[in-house]
């Protein structure tokens, strides 16, 4: 998988992963970004709902973290993918509620950032 | 982004994926590569499309909103036997990917999906479709020349038939095979069999023993190095991963790998790129990984010796090599084949094994498995001129390791002595002590002083004990 993050100087010379994905989508690039942003927003909402109750909804978190790995990873957002995988590992063991909550919160914030990036790409001419 | 491989030929693909952005992206990648793609967002829609027109291959997300992906996979294969199905799953559900492979999926992809890997999986699936029937392991029984020759297994036990069947089903896929089993059970042979029966059979098979190479050199051995990258690096070295490009990389004793290298291996598995020590640019390689350990990998994970994420990345299709003691009559088949093979090498002539030897072989535990058996046979062939192999020709330590085995003819008559280790099992220390004392006294014809001298205690100590045991009766 292309490992480009979007803002690390050492990878500045590499093709931006999201630009690449848009290029793959070709004429549907704008449509792809719009759909991607919607998917990411839905994912963020899922994480929010799963975190809402006093006890996190583990099944919901599990599904949302799978989605986060798939989508963030596809966009080359490695740090977020790493957090989502750490969350998956915790969920597999279903232990330490505070750690789960912390990682899920990290994913939610990472998704915010990723949504912002996708939207900015979308608005770029 | 590296160039994606050109598919062999465009094919009709049914893509069942519920996430719209991924569906769009996969469709774009496949379309750009010349495939024709139909999409479905739910299991129900997927089945409907499948019945309307049979595709050449199916890409199936294992997590669908209306139905379990594995259920759907079973349904697809029931209605369309032989349909190549590539399962797609997120990392957290790799255990399900293993189930998918067992259920008959052609391959699986872990999200996030790498474009090159994605297209090669589809290309392979289409290739399988055009090459049916699928390749199979040879059905003939291998001859004795193949013993220890590394080209096949001997034995017709149910356990080995299961192993061969599993190798047959996994060989055509790119899935990582994780071989477990005791030392000497043939893990490397199994890895070689996976390679030889795969589409990569003409590519290289590179075996690396992670436990035998010093940790400092391991990174260089796996990923290579460039000249001058460290003291002693007098020239560029490609490394095992590059040497295995287009073939199979077998990592033996993978649980012995240093933690730092585990991180790099994980990175390699995720990106399919290697960066030699001292190099600045990564290189893309196309390698299938087969790994093995004689330890319990999950135990190593729990003890923090093996990375959990690497474990899940590698433990895709587990293959357990049965120990020799669980392989029924295989021990005789292997022993006979080895006997004639080694006899030929040493210029001797043997007539086979006596019934006593066969019985002994069957009842022995073989802690060193096939490797130990081959060593025993080699020992017999080298130290004897020929004829029928009798118990007296067998190495001494084999008799010592026997549990309840018969002594070889000509051996010293059994004396009044302590029972061998196992018969003591279950006895308390006090019972063992009493047994030792009584046996010694009996051995010396009832003489307590002589028994005390042998046991290196004073006679009064024995008299006290005998008195106490008498009171206890």
- The general outline of chain B is elongated
Strand order of the largest sheet of chain B: 2-1-3-4-5
For the secondary structure, the number of strands of chain B is 14
Question: Oligomeric form of this entry?
Answer: heterodimer
How much helix, percentage-wise, in residues of chain B?
40-55%
How would you explain this protein's 3D organization?
The complex is a heterodimer of chains A (125) and B (473). Helix content of chain A is 74%, strand content 0%. The longest helix of chain A has 27 residues, at 97-123. Chain A is built from five helices and no strands. With 125 residues, chain A is mainly α. In chain A, α2 (29-51) runs antiparallel to α5. Residues 1-15 of chain A have low confidence and may be disordered. Chain A is elongated, with a radius of gyration of 15 Å. With 473 residues, chain B is an alpha/beta fold. Chain B contains 19 helices and 14 strands. Chain B has helices spanning 20-32, 43-52, 69-79, 94-103, 115-130, 158-171, 187-196, 215-223, 240-243, 259-271, 297-302, 308-314, 330-346, 355-363, 369-383, 396-400, 429-443, 448-455, 459-472; strands at 12-16, 36-40, 57-61, 85-90, 107-111, 177-181, 205-209, 248-252, 273-274, 283-284, 288-293, 317-321, 349-353, 386-389. In chain B, the strands form four sheets. Chain B has a five-stranded parallel beta sheet, with helices on both faces. Chain B has a five-stranded parallel beta sheet with strand order 7-8-11-6-12. A two-stranded antiparallel sheet of chain B has the order 9-10. In chain B, a hairpin with an 8-residue loop joins β9 (273-274) and β10 (283-284). Residues 1-9, 130-151 and 403-421 of chain B have low confidence and may be disordered.
Describe this structure in a few short sentences.
The complex is a heterodimer of chains A (125) and B (473). With 125 residues, chain A is mainly alpha-helical.
């Amino acid at each position: 998988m292309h490992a480009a993050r979007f803002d690390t100087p050492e990878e500045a010379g590499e093709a931006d992963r999201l630009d690449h994905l848009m290029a793959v989508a070709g004429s549907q690039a704008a449509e792809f970004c719009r759909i991607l942003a919607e998917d990411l927003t839905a994912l963020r909402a899922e994480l929010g709902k799963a975190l809402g109750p006093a006890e996190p909804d583990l099944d919901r978190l599990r599904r949302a973290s799978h989605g986060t790995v798939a989508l963030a990873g596809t966009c080359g957002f490695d740090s977020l993918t790493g957090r989502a995988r750490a969350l998956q590992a915790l969920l597999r063991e279903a232990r330490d509620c505070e750690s789960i909550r912390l990682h899920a919160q990290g994913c939610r914030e990472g998704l915010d950032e990723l949504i912002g990036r996708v939207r900015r790409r979308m608005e770029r001419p | 982004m590296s160039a994606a491989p050109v598919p062999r030929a465009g094919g009709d693909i049914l893509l069942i994926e519920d996430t719209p952005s991924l569906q769009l992206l996969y469709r774009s990648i496949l379309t750009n590569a010349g495939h024709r793609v139909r999409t479905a967002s739910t299991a129900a829609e997927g089945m409907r499309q499948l019945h309307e027109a049979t595709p050449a291959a199916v890409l199936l997300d294992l997590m669908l909103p209306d139905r379990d992906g594995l259920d759907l996979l079973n349904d697809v294969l029931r209605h369309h036997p032989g349909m190549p199905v590539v399962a797609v799953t997120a990392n957290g559900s790799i255990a399900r990917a293993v189930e998918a492979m067992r259920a008959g999926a052609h391959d699986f992809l872990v999200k996030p999906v790498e474009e090159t890997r994605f297209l090669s999986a589809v290309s392979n699936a289409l290739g399988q479709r055009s090459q049916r029937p699928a390749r199979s392991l040879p059905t003939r029984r291998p001859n004795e020349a193949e013993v220890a020759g590394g080209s096949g297994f001997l034995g017709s036990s149910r356990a080995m038939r299961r192993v061969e069947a599993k190798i047959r089903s996994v060989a055509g896929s790119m899935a990582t095979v994780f071989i477990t089993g005791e030392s000497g059970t043939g893990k490397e042979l199994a890895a070689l069999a996976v390679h030889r029966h795969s589409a990569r059979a003409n590519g290289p098979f590179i075996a690396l023993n992670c436990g035998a190479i010093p940790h400092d050199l391991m990174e260089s051995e796996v990923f290579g190095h460039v000249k001058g990258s460290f003291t002693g690096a007098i020239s560029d070295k490609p490394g095992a991963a590059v040497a295995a490009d287009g073939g199979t990389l077998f990592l033996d004793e993978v649980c012995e790998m240093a933690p730092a290298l585990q991180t790099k291996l994980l990175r390699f598995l995720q990106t399919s790129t290697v960066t030699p020590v001292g190099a600045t640019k990564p290189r893309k390689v196309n390698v299938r990984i087969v790994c093995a350990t004689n330890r319990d990998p999950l135990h190593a994970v729990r003890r923090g010796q093996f990375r959990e994420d690497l474990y899940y990345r590698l433990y895709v299709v587990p293959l357990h090599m049965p120990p020799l003691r669980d392989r029924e009559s295989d021990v005789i088949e292997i022993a006979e084949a080895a006997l004639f093979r080694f006899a030929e090498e040493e210029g001797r002539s043997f007539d086979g094994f006596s019934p006593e030897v066969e019985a002994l072989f069957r009842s022995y535990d073989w802690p060193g498995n096939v490797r130990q058996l081959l060593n025993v046979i080699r020992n017999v062939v080298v130290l004897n001129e020929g004829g029928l192999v009798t118990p007296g020709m067998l190495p001494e330590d084999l008799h010592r390791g026997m549990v309840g085995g018969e002594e070889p003819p000509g051996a010293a008559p059994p004396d009044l002595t302590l029972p061998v280790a196992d018969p003591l099992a279950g006895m308390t220390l006090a019972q063992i002590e009493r047994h030792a004392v009584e046996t010694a006294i009996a051995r010396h014809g009832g003489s307590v002083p002589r028994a005390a001298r042998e046991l290196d205690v004073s006679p009064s100590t024995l008299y006290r004990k005998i008195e106490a045991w008498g009171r206890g009766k």
